[in-house]
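# step 3/5: fold
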Amino acid sequence: MAELDRTGSGWGTRWAERENKRRRRAYEDAVEAWCLRGIRLLRLRAAAEELPAEPAADLPVDLTHDEVVLAVQPDAELVDVEDGHADLPTPELAVIPVQRTRRTARLPEGVRVTDAGTAVVTDRRVILHGREGDREWTYAELSGLAHHPAAPITLLHSFDGGPVAGLRVPLDAAARFRLRLTMAYADFIGQRRVVLARLDEAVDANRRSRPPAPVVVTAEHAPARARLAHPAIIAAAVALIALPAYAMTADSAGPEGPRGALDGGTPITRGTEPGTETPPSAAPTTGPSVPGTAPSRAPDPDVTSGEPGPGTADPEASQPIPVPGLIDPAPGPTGSPGMPSPIPADRCGAPANPYGYNYCGGTLVHEPAPDVCRWFTCVEGFWQGRGYLTVCEDGRLGMVGGPSGRCPERAGRKEPVYVYQPAS
């Protein structure tokens, strides 16, 4: 059994245990990726010290008598770059490992494959023996190499300013191919030490970038929404069961009884606070409209269908509506308008308010108080909403139905809002 936190419920302790496990798993994954990156960099640095020559026999290209083959890569592809794509990498004298992501296998925008074959890297040039013929780039005509960080593509930039082309190799062979090609080009232009220095910098930077250990959280760090993780399911189920029953009792009450009154129970006057119900003799009832008399307010909405109900208010009991909308507003608090009255209940993260509105439990709020948006932040078009109050994922207040006044799609519906009911 989890140790109780200061709230006495244990929900904060359970949240802290789950959060610490999640942070630990994320930390272990980050450390593993960091170690693998460091190993790859160290291997590249060691391989850059010496480039062994490859056998030159049975190659599909013609070589000069003293030309040294440094790499042979089958399954290479020739790629051409369309003009106007400035987001591609620029030439740099460095070996950049490919960052493996979900988009690694895709071609970057503006790059297309035009041929395929075997790529040969020598100490003087790089050649592609393709199906459409041979394509070669001598190091003397190249202005630089550009390795793509998220794709196994190396772009070959030339001094003549012509269209940029390059080679794409299989992902598993990209590190070796890039190293051999870069070192061959650097040796040709006399800049080997620059490439080695860049590799040393990369190794040192990775060594200093070890992921920090996660911060351990306790029950005191638990957000209020964590308390509703499990009760949310129960509250939603209760709401789904209660709504049909509420609609049936409202329809069966007839014009002589107030809407929503239970058989044999004490009807509650609209707008009264819980615990101050008006007895039947003093409660204004709804009934058919008097011929020739205009109704004092818009019909009440039906909470199940969203359509206005058939009843209208008694003209003698009509009150001005301070906020436009389809929802019958309740009167304001009887206490001081500037300070909410004390409510002996935990609000579970709900703002302080004089109506007992909370996120813990109680009765669903079908008719919000007219100044509810003074205590809560309401969604746009709140007063055109229908149904019952709900708190959105971003903390704003909305209704469950209606053409507007609901939680936006991106905010999502979080939990119902309840009204506090004191124990009898």
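# step 4/5: annotate
The first strand starts at residue 69 and ends at 81.
# step 5/5: archive (pending)
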